[in-house]
Automatic annotation (TrEMBL):
PANTHER family for the chain: 60 KDA LYSOPHOSPHOLIPASE, L-ASPARAGINASE
EC id: 3.5.1.1
Gene3D superfamilies reported in the protein's UniProt record: L-asparaginase, N-terminal domain
InterPro entries: Asp/glu_Ase-like_sf (IPR036152), Asparaginase/glutaminase-like (IPR006034), L-asparaginase_N (IPR027474), L-asparaginase_N_sf (IPR037152)
Protein name, as recorded: Asparaginase domain-containing protein
Organism per entry: Lysobacter korlensis
Amino acid sequence: MEQLCIVTTGGTIDKIYFDDKSDFQVGEPQIGRILEELGVAFRYSVIPIIRKDSLHITDEDRELIRATIAAQDARHVLVTHGTDSMVQTAQVLSTLTDRTIVLTGALNPARFRGSDAEFNIGTAVGAVQSLPPGVYIAMNGRVWHPAKVRKNVAANRFEAAD
């Protein structure tokens, strides 16, 4: 992997909560800070393009994500994304067949102790380096093809689609 291109779109991984009533905003991307603190041994760039909860990501936003990735020279791309519509975005990105793209996020904000953010990022980094070109989702310690996974909202995890 020459350099990892990271595209950030917001989601829970970057959320900042202000009170116990779930008043939040999507803050600065956390992945650069996380990778810096972990002292990773690869080069990366972070392109923050939107800051939205994934429930608010539109078809136009998905096209912006696709166009942004298509415009990069990088063949290895990691996308941080909210979990609620991650699968839909992955399906849009599947038209980019010449690179390996892995989407990941978090079920708890990266700023929270015990967040799954670092683990999911680590899984995604390993996946993006080792998988053939295509689009994948890395969540809950697994790597999924977008057509074969769904978010189980009640259980708050990703699982095989029926």
